[in-house]
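Lay summary. Proteins are chains of building blocks that fold into shapes, and those shapes determine what they do. In this project we predict the shape from the chain. Here is one chain we studied, written as its sequence of building blocks.
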Amino acid sequence: MLHLLPVEIALQVVSYLPIQTLHQLVQVSRAWHDLIAVNESTVYRNAAILHRLVQDENCDNLVSQASRLEINWKSFCRREFQIEWGWRGKAPSYVEELSASGTSVHRIKVDEDSGLVITTSQRGGLLVTNLKGNAPLWGLPPSHVVESAHCEYDHGYIVFNRLDNCKEVWRRVVDADNEDHCTESPPDADMLSAWTEGISRWDASTRHGHFKPWALLRMPEHTRAFRLSHLTLLASATENAYLWDVSQGRLIETICDIQRWHHDQTLGHIQYVEVNDKYAFICGSSQLRIFERGGGALVYDLSPKNLVRKVWNILSFDEHPAPNSSIVKRQKLQQSDLTTSSSADDQFMAVHVSGNGKDIVALTVCGVLIIVPGFQRLISGEAVLSNIAVQLRFPPNVGHLQDTAIYLALSEKDGKVAAAMCRGLYLVSPDIEFSNITTECPPRPGVVVSRLTKFEDMKLLSFVSCLQITRTSIYFNWKPSRPDTQLNRGGGNNGYPMLAGGPIGNPPMNIPPLVVQPQMGPPTHNNQHPNNTAATAFNDHDNEDEADVGAGGFFGHSGDLPHLEPATFELDEYDEDEEYEEEDEYHEDFDADFMDEFFDAEGGPFEHPMHGHWNPVMVHVGEGDPDGGMHVLINEWFLPMNMSTVYRVSF
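And here is the predicted shape, written in a compact code that computers can read:
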């Protein structure tokens, strides 16, 4: 009997039990109940580690935090399981439209710890909004930030591209103390002028969400992709890759000849780059390559034709329907063979590395997701890809297989994956029933796949240009929902400014049917992949069975998890939430005239400051078009203008 064992041994045994079993165990007898109740903190701390709700190195910090906030480990596990079940559609989910972020959103970066959402616009400009209050805090105008700029954010630093191939670095004001800027690569006059002008335009009563010019990184050659992680910026040209320390504004390493022939192939077209403290990951159309930092040695490469032959197909699954309060629907996984013909025509489009540096995920244009836990075992030769990788294949775009994948995002903290595909927005979560404590190699595939049911319009999915994932939420750009989101000088919803206006599929905006703009520069900043790589299509990228809940549910509650109010898809309620009223007070003095720089008196865009060889014509699409919105005529080609704002689905 467990309760007859020495306490230390009994607790060691209990530490390997799933949380569901713990709940059942306390009901067996009073002795077992008392054993777990007396050692509750230790038992549920171990359970949190077992279920990968927390990493071992974070336990001490969480213990002190739980003690300070009077939160016990049992409560922590309960909340984490609510989140985990939410990702699987078994707990309520919440949908919110962050309308203050603008209506022509291109890129999104989120800092939940600081409560910030950072967006760039297809029309140009950068905006920082308050995540909780859905209100603008600070921004840069289109005259300073190019159209469809790609931006990166990490630890209070924003990096974005500009037309002269330089990368601007802006730092959060509250972090800079009394430092004016970095000394090795100081900002230029244009950055300082934009900062000075912004001081008078944005509320000075708080510095929350404000940024200041920090550095101007002058690239040695034209770069095609860049990524910021742990204050290291990796910028890749066609033949070489450059690593910068953004805090010091200093070039710290150059990886040369990244296109060198290896296994009878080159990298191909640079699609995406990723970086951590040990490796630089270059995702080309022909190969995914891993280079070692501190020398630039090529330590691993992978071609689509060398992928594992077994793949898990993602299918719709109706056996366990989601509750009415959830828009997340679980999918079925069915194993099959990956045909040689499909992999031969496939190309890599993105790669991400986990925050702990142990795992990588990659996505191909044909919709194959490759998850490689412990990828360094491939580099050392301890394992082969077929033994450790899990491959998922999303429903394809029939007739256009290479247009299946749109965007990939990876949560740094818990290994969750979000993918925008031609047929839906998908969530991939590690199966919390297994971990390396209980089994070295859990039953395949070891993941649970779900889909967001309210965002399935294939035409609108093709316009998704950014996707971000955190521990509790997923962020992406989607069409504005409100018929009153109109283009005007002062702003759109809630009186907050919009970088561009107008919903998709709603009554026409008050814009002349034909607006001719002056000539602009070459399209080096338009139609680009997430890392600022050139793309030929607008849908560019950024850079199963779980155990059933018993009749008693978790922790003595019913199967429907407690303390969660049902979610609805009525987005209007968020604007009238009294919780946000106090947060909005300090925006009463917001200078709406700042937005005059975005629009003229008739509501049309001002003359673009860049002059070149383009002569675009903006044409409004009437109600007869199912997508609505705008199209841009450039050199006799019509390109869709995506009227979208930021949406958040949280659990």
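What the prediction tells us: Residues 73-87 form the longest helix (15 residues).
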